[in-house]
Amino acid sequence: MLLLVSAATTLAQTHRLSGRTIRRLPSTRMEVAAEKPPAHFRVTKFDARKFNISILTSLAQQELGGWKPAGPTMPHRLPNGRQALALPRQTATNPLAMTSTTRPTLASVATETKPGPNKHAKETTKDKPTSETFINPRIDLSKAELHANSADFSTVCLANECEAVDGAQEAFPYDSKHDVPTQHPWIEWGRVWYGDGITPRGIDLFGPYNLVRPKFFMYGDFRTGVASGRNAAGRTDNWANRLNLDLDLQITDSERFHTFVGPLDENNQFTRWELVDGDLRYRNEMDLTPATAFFEGDMGAILGAWSGQSSPFEFPVTAGLVPLLFQNGIWMEDAASGFAFAFPAKHSRLLNWSNFDWTFFALFDQLNSPAFQDDNDAHAYGTAAFIEAYGGYIEAGYAYLHARQDESLSYHNATVSFTRRYFDRLSNSVRVIVNSGQDRVRNQRTADGGLLLVENSLITASPLTVVPYANFFYGWGRPQSVARAGISGGILRNTGINFDTDGINGFATLDVSAADTVGGSIGIDLIGESLDRQLLLELSYLTPHGDMALANGDQFAVGARYQFPITNATLLRFDAMHGWRENDRDVYGTRMEYRWKF
């Protein structure tokens, strides 16, 4: 007579034992031979509570890599009065890790055949243990010793902490759930932003494997800020406004048209009221010209649908007035007319690269760079790679910039960086950008030399809320990014808040060109315990070291930033800085900004 026992529930369910999470294994069915137990087994009274604890804990222990009993085990009696036998483990083999063809059943390895006339009767596994001995999860936990697997990331459930179940902790992940406030776009047609329910079936226009599910969103943010102070160009006493609008028309799950418009700004100037020599003036800078407008899609999905099959490969492409950003905006941050494509999610066993993406681009117009007079002067052809390898990640890129009017301004721009964590205490990034190739005398070159950037942050006892950082740079010649929108600030913008423009009021900064200068910033980033507010404090310094420097002497600055949310869609931000510049007028300022995201 066979007894069918259900050993577990679904893998997706989680349970908590004394605050530690374990995962239930997939449901399995095991055949148990209800034979008379061997003499060294004894029958105990069934205890539902201990039975449940034993099931959950033993499954967790088996998943952690195995256990071995310290002595004989015993059976448990099921609620219907029948017995489930638990056998001593003979080897460290984990039966749950066996394949379907090698995993034995309890009937095949745990039964003891009654003596009889059949001369081919099986011998008991007690007499001849095998490496595939089955382990019944219902085992006497008091006789078991847990041996954690160092290669497993699962939580270790200690024996003395598994004797009781905290029902409140088990229910907490479910009882504590609540609706998360979501700010919806100004316009959402076709489908609701972060809506619930099943994705509706699409329209078969391009093939059944790339269905059309049209939707249109218009989202962005509105920023308004009041500032007072002085930057390198003069006084900055103004109240400025900026509206960023993203318009996104999605055709299929992988193809879309997108455009970005800033209706309140033109040529990096924002609609504002400003105080000039005691006179209050209004500046209208409204302009509806798109800053970006491009198509984005996956050729694998498109071609696969046309040929009546699922996407055979991934080949993302984009064309139009395309925004490109590489290396956190240091090497490139601009929108230019052209196209780009990428080979994503590749790997190389030969080079020991676990994952890499490789992007190629060609830009023909509207390329912004201090190396050229205007945005129609140059073409750019290049590539950029992101590689996860060697305990960190590598970012590399190369571009050739061809000047249309003056060939002597054409040049090569190359970069490489490596980022990783050391000793579990230091996050470090080393980045190099090199420019070369302009055929002019040195003092007339607009893109020449290079920039070394070293960025560091310390891992403290509170890694999410207390982050000290120290960033340094060394520039020689006149290094340039491939392309930089004027509103993006200078090539040193990520060095610290004293080098980062606010993008609305013209807030003061130190020299951001990196031309023949060396310096850095040291600061601390303090985040609220609930990650709901931020305070930044920073000291910065730079000094020139060559004749190509734009700074006329040493420069020092102190800066601070504080911001916090008002609602899930709005925040307030405050900035203050003072910079001392040798042989130049000091720069300083304070500002307050209100931001509404939608």
UniProtKB/TrEMBL annotation:
Composition bias type Polar residues, residue spans: 101-111
Ranges for region Disordered: 101-133
Bias type Basic and acidic residues, positions: 120-130
Protein name according to UniProt: Uncharacterized protein
Organism the protein comes from: Roseiconus lacunae
